[in-house]
Amino acid sequence: MILPLRLEEVSWGEGGRTLIDRVSLTLEAGASTILLGANGAGKSLLMRLMHGLIAPDSGTVAWRAGAARNARRSHAMVFQRPVMLRRSALANVVYALAVAGVARREREAQAMAALLEVGLAGLAHRPARVLSGGEQQRLALARAWALHPEVLFLDEPTANLDPAATREIETVIKAFDAAGTKIVMSTHNLGQARRLGDEVVFLHQGRLVECAPIERFFAQPATAEAAAFVKGELPWV
Amino acid sequence: MDPGALLRDGLALVGSFDARLWQTVALSLQVSLAAVLLAMLVGLPLGAALAVGRFRGRHVLIVTLNALMGLPPVVAGLLIYLLLSRAGPLGELGLLFTPGAMVIAQTVLVIPIIAALTRQAVEDAWREYAEQLRSLGVEGVRAAVTVLWDTRFSLLTAVLAGLGRASAEVGAVLIVGGNIDGVTRVMTTAIVLETSKGDLSLALGLGTVLMAIVLALNTAAYLVQAVARRRYG
Questions:
Q1: Distance of CA A14 to the CA centre of its chain
Q2: Percent of chain B with pLDDT over 70
Q3: Which of A170, A196, B14, B23 has the fewest CB atoms inside 10 Å of its own CB, making it the most exposed?
Q4: Average of per-residue pLDDT across A181-203
């Protein structure tokens, strides 16, 4: 167990601009967390800080005490644009397993199981880069899922996909959630936020403005910024 | 004499497997292939390091390499000549006017091409891969090997571009090799000589072989890229 994840007074900036401004937040196991906010609010950056891709300028990002040693393998991330290696879909998952130190003879079976989970078993031997956008994103999910992470970060995973592919991705995410993986996802699709999320973390200009259960966030936003966001974004549902 | 007849004579000479001609062709290929192999040993790691590394002088080195891609072969030849000449710092090796000297000169010409093209290919791939690889926990040598492997077809193009440059240049091998019959005479230097002697049909025959080789190399590069794109995306 690596949760809860605690962020305390986390700040991060670039070129003299503060892009994440003293964010304090605790992520508990169970509830799916949706990061909301306008473009540039800091959703992606905050997720990269949690995932450890960038280090905070100040403040701390800490997994549960005593979990530090193997925490890195227990959380994975799926990016907005999946990056596939120039090899087969199966080999992409096998690669991730190899990096994680899974024994050679077990890799292929585990990779195949992960592909089956996302409905890509039939395309296992296709080159990953010639798959469609939606298939690549499902492959990215399989690659992340193959390691059975405790936490899965998803950075606008359906931003570039059509509605059908988006539905498929959502189905996979729901299955991961049901299997006990903590989902932390950013999205601009408020319908999707409602379908997949339990709680909302709302960011505005790099600051954490509101944390609330999802229904309350949409029905009665507690802050003016959140109210304006919900009002402004709703036509996009 | 009209060019058509000259070309016919030249091709007849090529077709007759004239020993002198094919010896020249063979030496050309040996020298250029050796130079490219040596240049790969330096150029591939250098290009990869420039693509991924962040160190002082990196930008200066990149601009220098890009500029050196256009280094005139005669200038490279002259510099190697000065190094290898009897009075030069490497004069004792006795390499001047040997195929060895020609390999060195062409290596110097080819390294910037391979390094610069490798740098470009690896840097583009790295920009795309870096974050994903870090997310998967891939670091250091493993990350470098992964990116080099994924850019292997672009790297092949870089190597073939280097081979094209080496086999087509004349200035450097002429200066350091001396165009000695049966020792350091290669296709390009032979063409220069035969043209000045007036034996245009032999020059044309050699020119045809040279163009066929360069064309074959470029066709191979193009096909490899096309197949790779279709197969691996």
A1: 23
A2: 99
A3: B23
A4: 93
- The total of other beta-carbon atoms located within 10 Å of residue B53's CB is 9
Token representation of residue A129 = 């880069």
- Nearest 5 degrees, angle CA B80-CA B84-CA B90? 120
Give the contacts of A106 (CB within 8 A, at least 6 positions apart).
A97
* DSSP string computed for B214-233: HHHHHHHHHHHHHHHHHHH-
Q: What pLDDT score was predicted for residue B33?
A: 95
Among residues A140, A210, A133, the alpha carbon closest in space to that of A166 is found at A133
Contact B138 A99 (CB under 8 A): yes
Residue given tokens 């990350």 in the structure block? B143
Minimal CA separation from A9 to chain B, in Å: 24
> Per residue in A34-56, pLDDT tens?
999 998 899 999 999 999 999 99
How far from each other are the two terminal CA atoms of chain B, in whole angstroms? 52
Beta strands A33-36; A58-62: pairing state: unpaired
Q: Rounded to whole angstroms, how far apart are CA atoms B29 and B213?
A: 9
* pLDDT tens per residue across span B131-186: 999 999 898 888 888 998 999 888 988 998 899 899 999 999 999 999 998 899 99
Q: For residue B133, which amino acid is it? A: L
d(CA A208, CA A187): 16
